[in-house]
Design a protein that fits this description.
A two-stranded antiparallel ribbon has the order 1-2. A two-stranded antiparallel sheet has the order 3-4. 31% of the residues lie in helices and 19% in strands. Strand 3 and strand 4 form a beta hairpin. By secondary structure, it is α+β, with helices and mostly antiparallel strands.
Length: 113
Amino acid sequence: MTRHIPEAIQAIEPLRPDAPFRNVNFAPVDIRLDTRPDGTVLLSNAQPLNALPVQQLGEYLRRHAASRPEQTFLAQMGATGDWERLTYAQALAKVNALSQWLLDQKLPAGHPC
């Protein structure tokens, strides 16, 4: 069964009336599902993508961390029922720390594993 994201959110909203959902405009989708003989399932979007205004997706995080550092980037319901939030600044700090750790490992280019 294929469900569009807005429909999925609408199904969740009554279950969590205090959740901070907001309307989000999603790109159009044309989901294709292919099952290979070995059982592998491939999902793809046949809708062509527009060009991104950035070269790397990480640029979005850096931009938002600079322009709105205290705004919530991600949130999840914690074990106590309170929302656990991660700001753009906190997310960028975590990404930078992980990036530096990977660089410190001196992994060979082309074979990072």
